[in-house]
Amino acid sequence: MGIGTKWYRKSLLTVAGIPAVEKLSMRYGRKLAGKFIAGDTLAEALEEAEALNRLGIMVTLDHLGEGIKQLSEAAAYKEQYLKLLDGIAERKVDANVSLKPTQMGLALNQGACLSNIRDVVKQARHHRNFVRIDMEDTPHTQATIDIVRRLHKEGLTNVGTVLQAYLFRTEQDAADMIRENVNLRLVKGAYKESDSVAYQQMSEVRGQLKKLAKLHLDEGVYTAIASHDDQIIDWVKQYARDNGIDKSRFEFQMLYGLRSNKQAQLAKEGYRIRCYVPYGVMWYPYYTRRLAEKPANLMLVLRNMFR
């Protein structure tokens, strides 16, 4: 990323982390966050998922929450995910689920977190569904990977995770997880990370994401490439065509509220496209990361303030 964009991102994430700013935003900003959040309730989220399905777009549903303070909160989130999986099955929505490990207690007790996620994955297996464990910032990277590997060894293979292209370690992580046939989502990375662990230039990050996508496509491991970047999307499409890689072997993923027309276009072209649909009342951390990704997202919200 350029110096200006880098400064913008770090500044916005720093300001967003100030308790007074968070409190004020939580009180007055929900309407603005609605651009990126499907609703407060499960029913609202399922309705949005059904609407996307009608356009040929698959969904991954995320009941928002992270960085909890007590394990009782993790238990409550687990119950919400069990209900979410039941709701997907009952309404026959073409959707899987995404969850954050800190939401399930990772920062408090790794054993309890594993147990909570295991219960969700078992419920998903019962419904022949899939669970994506989102990747958070670097203090949780190894523990998240360890949880996925542990569940796979237990025979729960309907679970995967996310690798972030901007981290120096990711290329080795990808090679390791390919050998274990772990379903991965590849992303650029959305957290504020230092130059000691992560690439800082967008050209480098984009290059790493292409390298990771190539590695997965060449090895035949089903892969989700999550990006709104036309350079990445067009490169993947061309690479797949040039190498005879069927469209069924990968999917594109994009975020709810961003590039909706592009998502519909990819579906019409016969590509597998999945929309990441978050819902719930704990929307602030997710919302601030979306604004921090690029100034255009903030401008979009500011324009909506005056409509």
Automatic annotation (TrEMBL):
A Pfam match is: Pro_dh
Q: Which reaction does it catalyse?
A: L-proline + a quinone = (S)-1-pyrroline-5-carboxylate + a quinol + H(+)
Cofactor field: FAD
Q: Which pathway? A: Amino-acid degradation; L-proline degradation into L-glutamate; L-glutamate from L-proline: step 1/2
The Proline dehydrogenase domain, residue ranges: 45-297
Residues annotated as signal peptide: none
GO MF annotations in UniProt = oxidoreductase activity
- This chain belongs to which protein, by name? proline dehydrogenase
Organism phylogeny:
Bacteria, Bacillati, Bacillota, Bacilli, Bacillales
